[in-house]
Write the structure tokens for this entry.
Amino acid sequence: QDGGAQVGTVVGRVVASDRDDAPFNFLSYEMTGDGSAPIFFDVNANGNIVVKSSLADDTTTDYDIRVIVRDSGRPPKTATATGKIITTKNR
């Protein structure tokens, strides 16, 4: 990986909370975004944004991401966090 971020490396975190009682306060996260962001990044069950695919051959240097957070209510409520991941290529 030429010293780059390995697949699985945490590069950010979305922090969310819900004051409802269990089980309605369980949160789930979904990565969306523009262009290739969802190809190279994902969000795990804890809200950590991780490298999903090798960035070594990608020429993009910045990725616009959106993470959708849903609670377990019926119907579920959602919130969206947006951000940008900027990479530096060592070539």
